[in-house]
Amino acid sequence: MKGKPVTPPVVLSATYQFENTDELIDVVQHRTGYLYSRWDNPTVREAEQMLASMEGYSNVVGFGSGMAAVTSSILAFVEKGGRVIAIQTYGETYRFIHDYLPRMGVDTIGLNCDDVDQCDAEFKKGATLLFLESPMNPLLRVIDVKPLAQLAHEHGAVVILDSTFASPVNQRPIELGVDIAIHSATKYLGGHHDITAGFACCNEEHHEAIWKQRRMFGGILDPMTAFL
């Protein structure tokens, strides 16, 4: 087809056909195309690339809700015996971290402040992941993310920031040392109260782990919502 659509087309197909087995194998092994819309979808990919360009990360993974993005991103980097430090989180995120993760054998601690010295003391006890939210939903408290991200990295922890209430307009997580920036697109990214969606923005080193969680649990964003 000559000419490129000005508006991204909505691709509703659940499955995709191939000219031969070699094409199929290439897509399965190298993700050079599309096989099954639980894995990837062209319309979803378009939305992911648009957000990546706004945030400055190389990759974005689209989900059916903000909480799907949160839970899949956390599960991608914690396992039995791990330890998660969480600072001022949204209610459902709090419940997932402190009620659900301990059932997996993950130790969790919640802090209500951004005191670097207090966080340092906790990191010295061991930590796999630091989860932050700024501005906080719904109290809008803002914390100084950069020194906490630096501290977490010194202890080998992955840093996830829920940046929903700031949006890419008001906050650049990648410039603060954040590994994974979460957005509930149901809020400002959607803007019209007519979608439920979430995104995890990251660079290449963290992308595959998050994408595999989405593929396994089936939380991919649907094409029509991605279009909106």
TrEMBL record:
<dbReference type="InterPro" id="IPR000277">
    <property type="entry name" value="Cys/Met-Metab_PyrdxlP-dep_enz"/>
</dbReference>
<dbReference type="GO" id="GO:0019346">
    <property type="term" value="P:transsulfuration"/>
</dbReference>
<keyword id="KW-0663">Pyridoxal phosphate</keyword>
<dbReference type="GO" id="GO:0016846">
    <property type="term" value="F:carbon-sulfur lyase activity"/>
</dbReference>
<dbReference type="InterPro" id="IPR054542">
    <property type="entry name" value="Cys_met_metab_PP"/>
</dbReference>
<dbReference type="InterPro" id="IPR015424">
    <property type="entry name" value="PyrdxlP-dep_Trfase"/>
</dbReference>
<dbReference type="GO" id="GO:0030170">
    <property type="term" value="F:pyridoxal phosphate binding"/>
</dbReference>
<dbReference type="GO" id="GO:0005737">
    <property type="term" value="C:cytoplasm"/>
</dbReference>
<protein>
    <recommendedName>
        <fullName>Cystathionine gamma-synthase</fullName>
    </recommendedName>
</protein>
<dbReference type="Pfam" id="PF01053">
    <property type="entry name" value="Cys_Met_Meta_PP"/>
</dbReference>
<dbReference type="InterPro" id="IPR015421">
    <property type="entry name" value="PyrdxlP-dep_Trfase_major"/>
</dbReference>
